[in-house]
Design a protein that fits this description.
Blueprint (H helix, E strand, L loop, with lengths): L1 E2 L5 H13 L4 E4 L5 H14 L20 E4 L7 H6 L3 H11 L4 E10 L34 E7 L11 E2 L15 H7 L1 E2 L7 E5 L4 E2 L9 E9 L9 H4 L2 H5 L3 H6 L24
Parallel strand pairs: 1-2
Antiparallel strand pairs: 2-8, 3-4, 4-10, 5-8, 5-10, 6-7, 6-9
Helix pairs in contact: 1-4
The chain binds 2-oxoglutaric acid (AKG).
2-oxoglutaric acid binds next to strand 9 and strand 10.
Length: 281
């Protein structure tokens, strides 16, 4: 995994794009967020996940430990820290280079593994996450350019013991949902996203990856951000789920991320259907 040199980001961008598309598929920004930002985000995730919030995706054989995992969705509406997280300037620069400068936010959620919490099955992320139904995708779809860029921001130490995400370097090239028969190859050859709270691990959503079981005595929480090319339908319905006050204080970048500046779908024969910012026009 390439470590981003933020002091020389402009000159390093071609290497980052290469690593993302044709290399290991992952890059790391150390200390992207301050300890105060991490503490703020972590406090909110603990609050919002205090009630049971069981995630049912990807659990497979781990059903019995499901109650030790919490998922908190729609974070854009759950605290200003999350508005800041999706707009980190270095991440915005990298996402613009990888997805095009009109990229959007697909989702911002948290995954919290309690001690003993289960891992996931190896998978790939939206919009490829149901690619086990291959017939739903275009003929000859391939990995030569990305539609997705994922970020994991640990809020607790990501160690082998605590269940740091595992990923299979270079697997993005296959653009294949990992099958049961691929799991031995995955676990035998995977790397781990070892990182500290506040780091940002950027990876290609076509890379096979998963949370691993938390065998430590502490929580393993992370913010998961998904960016998409401008023309992909977002995973989370931010227009319905984010309050008007968040939109009102939003920057141009935040409006772009919420697809508020993207004009389609549009009624071309209706003069009243001009592109507008915000739900109130
Ligand atoms: O929490 C993790 O380590 C990975 C989560 C993930 O890949 C997912 O939920 O899609």
């Amino acid at each position: 995994m390439l470590t981003v040199d933020v002091a020389n980001l402009d000159t390093q961008l071609p290497d980052i794009i290469e690593e993302f598309i044709a290399g290991t598929g992952a890059v790391l920004i150390k200390d992207a967020f301050t300890p105060d930002q991490v503490a703020d985000a972590r406090r909110l995730i603990m609050e919002y996940s205090a009630e049971e919030d069981k995630e049912t995706h990807f659990q497979g054989a781990n059903q019995d430990r499901m109650h030790l995992q919490r998922r908190v969705w729609n974070l854009l509406d759950k605290g200003e820290i999350f508005e800041a997280m999706v707009q980190h300037p270095d991440v915005v620069k990298i996402a613009s280079a990888i997805l095009g400068d009109k990229f959007i936010l697909g989702s911002i959620a948290a995954n919290r593994l309690l001690p003993g919490g289960p891992g996931q099955e190896p998978h790939i992320d939206y919009p490829y996450w149901d690619m086990y139904e291959r017939e739903g995708f275009p003929a000859r779809i391939n990995s030569s350019y990305p539609l997705n860029m994922q970020i994991t921001i640990p809020l607790d130490p990501f160690t082998a013991e605590s269940g740091a995400s595992a990923f299979l370097p270079h697997s993005q090239g296959e653009l294949l949902y990992p099958r049961t028969k691929d799991r031995d190859r995955f676990y035998a050859n995977c790397d781990r996203m070892l990182a500290d709270p506040g780091d940002a691990i950027i990876f290609n959503g076509m890379v096979w990856h998963c949370a691993m079981p938390n065998e430590s005595d502490h929580n393993r929480s992370a913010i998961l951000i998904e960016y998409l090319a401008k023309f992909v339908t977002p995973l989370e319905d931010q227009k319905a789920g984010v309050r008007q006050e968040v939109i009102d204080r939003g920057t141009p970048i935040l409006h772009q991320l919420m697809s508020l500046t993207y004009p389609y779908p549009k009624l071309f024969d209706d003069a009243a259907a001009e592109n507008t910012i915000g739900r109130d026009g």
